[in-house]
């Protein structure tokens, strides 16, 4: 998933970004600065949710935190790669949407719905006004 | 990316085809009867005839016909036998490869004992079961193509021995099912057991084949061959694909496979029909 500024199509950098899967105790991103995030989809479910927040620091005394949720509707399908490599889960991304005030106007483009065994592949583009 | 890859493999295929055609031109066929003087009793002079030298006894060439072959008839009749072959290599391999059973038969026709149009047909069944998955696949395949015989001398024609290089286009229809696949997820800390419904796929690929076929006894042959299989492609583009393809083996985009054949072959008689005409 990659975030763009809609005004000039440049990559939108989030600061102090936290991302955690709903139902998991582990953080995927912890205070990161990033414009791309890679989210693991559940193998035996058709919707996966993530809790996110980023923080904008104005000065040493002032900062604002913006929480939002990402929800991904997907269809899992197992694929046997080979006897040696075993099975992996391919996914088809059906829909992506956001919950939270800050993300109300974000535009979602499903660039490549097929999530296969390719590392660092981009599937969803988000345009932020 | 995908179209670029396919274009690359298409260029590779075109290049190999041109290479095979050029190879065919380079391997000029020289009949033994063209290059050697065969005496009436079938003996060949080893060194130049200087008037007093004799034919060296013991070096004997068995002529295809009792009469010398004339240039215009050097290649003989167009039809020079039809062959039906049964591969035994893959059935034997079933004992060692975890139960992947594959069986194939082939039919080809000898034209001038040089060109061999061929059709091959086979099937495969494979059901590997491990703790991590239960995969079942079966299907049919057909290959069509032609071979070019690199040896066409008198002995080869007498016994119909052949060293053949050729090309095939192959098609396979395969259905496959993945059950009880255990997927471990490090982040979600889950071990899910999932299954997929039966899928069907049409797969094509290209082969270059090299084969040696020798006569064991009259009308019965044995052949040993090697296949280089490349440019595998799904007829209907999909992210899901069959892991094993009948006639091809393990599938992956852009993969090149090597396969071997050991076949026993029956040649339908054809020379017997020609003999009465010669006796007239």
Radius of gyration of chain A: 16 Å
Low-confidence runs of chain A: none
Q: Numbering strands along the chain, what is their spatial order in the largest sheet of chain A?
A: 3-2-4-5-6-8
Total number of beta strands of chain A: 9
| Proportion of residues in helical segments of chain A | under 10%
Give an overview in words.
The complex is a heterodimer of chains A (129) and B (280). Chain A has 129 residues and is mostly beta strands. Chain A is built from no helices and 9 strands. Chain A has strands at 2-5, 14-21, 27-34, 47-57, 63-82, 86-99, 107-110, 114-115, 124-128. In chain A, the strands form 2 sheets. Chain A has a 6-stranded antiparallel sheet with strand order 3-2-4-5-6-8, with no helix packed on it. In chain A, strand 5 and strand 6 form a beta hairpin. Chain A is globular, with a radius of gyration of 16 Å. The mean pLDDT of chain A is 91. By secondary structure, chain B is an alpha+beta fold. Chain B has 5 helices and 12 strands. Chain B has helices spanning 2-26, 32-35, 89-93, 154-159, 271-279; strands spanning 79-87, 101-111, 115-126, 134-149, 162-179, 181-185, 190-194, 199-217, 220-234, 244-245, 249-250, 257-268. In chain B, the strands form 3 sheets. Chain B has an 8-stranded antiparallel beta barrel with strand order 1-2-3-4-5-8-9-12. In chain B, strands 6-7 form a two-stranded antiparallel ribbon. In chain B, strands 10-11 form a two-stranded antiparallel ribbon. The longest helix of chain B has 25 residues, at 2-26. Chain B is elongated and about 75 Å long. Chain B starts with a helix and ends with a helix. Residues 1-5, 19-64 and 272-280 of chain B have low confidence and may be disordered. The A-B interface holds A 21, 23-24, 26, 28, 40, 42-44, 76-83, 86-90, 92, 114, 116 and B 98, 128, 130, 132-133, 135, 178, 181-183, 185, 187-190, 192, 194-196, 239-241, 243, 250, 252.
């Amino acid at each position: 998933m990659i975030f763009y500024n809609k005004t000039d199509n440049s990559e939108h950098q989030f600061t102090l970004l936290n991302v955690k899967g709903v139902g998991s105790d582990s953080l995927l991103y912890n205070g990161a600065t990033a414009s791309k995030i890679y989210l693991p989809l559940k193998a035996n479910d058709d919707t996966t949710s993530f809790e996110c927040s980023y923080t904008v620091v104005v000065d040493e005394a002032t900062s604002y935190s913006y929480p939002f949720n990402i929800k991904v509707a997907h269809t899992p399908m197992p694929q046997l790669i080979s006897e040696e490599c075993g099975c992996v889960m391919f996914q088809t991304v059906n829909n992506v949407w956001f919950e939270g005030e800050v993300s109300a106007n974000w535009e979602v483009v499903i660039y490549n719905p097929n999530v296969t065994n390719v590392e660092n592949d981009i599937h969803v583009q988000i345009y932020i006004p | 990316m995908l179209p670029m890859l396919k274009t690359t493999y298409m260029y590779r295929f075109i290049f190999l085809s041109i290479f095979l055609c050029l190879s065919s031109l380079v391997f000029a066929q020289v009949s033994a009867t063209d290059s050697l003087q065969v005496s009436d009793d079938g003996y060949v002079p080893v060194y130049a005839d200087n008037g007093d030298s004799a034919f060296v006894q013991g070096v004997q060439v068995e002529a295809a016909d009792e009469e010398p072959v004339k240039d215009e008839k050097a290649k003989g009749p167009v039809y020079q036998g039809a062959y039906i072959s049964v591969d035994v290599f893959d059935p034997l391999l079933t004992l060692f490869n975890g139960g992947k059973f594959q069986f194939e038969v082939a039919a080809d026709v000898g034209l001038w004992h040089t060109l061999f149009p061929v059709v091959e047909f086979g099937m495969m069944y494979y059901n590997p079961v491990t703790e991590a998955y239960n995969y079942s696949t079966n299907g049919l395949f057909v290959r069509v193509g032609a071979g070019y015989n690199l040896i066409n001398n008198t002995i080869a024609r007498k016994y119909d021995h052949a060293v053949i290089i050729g090309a095939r286009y192959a098609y396979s229809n395969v259905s496959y099912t993945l059950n009880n696949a255990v997927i471990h997820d490090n982040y979600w800390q889950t071990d899910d057991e999932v299954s997929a419904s039966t899928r069907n796929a049409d797969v094509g690929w290209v082969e270059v084949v090299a084969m040696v076929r020798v006569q064991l006894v009259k009308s019965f042959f044995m052949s040993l061959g090697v296949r280089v299989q490349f440019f595998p492609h799904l007829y209907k583009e999909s992210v899901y694909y069959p892991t094993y393809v009948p006639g091809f083996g393990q599938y992956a985009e852009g993969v090149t496979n090597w396969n071997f054949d050991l076949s026993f072959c029956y040649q339908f008689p054809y020379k017997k029909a020609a003999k009465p005409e010669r006796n007239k």
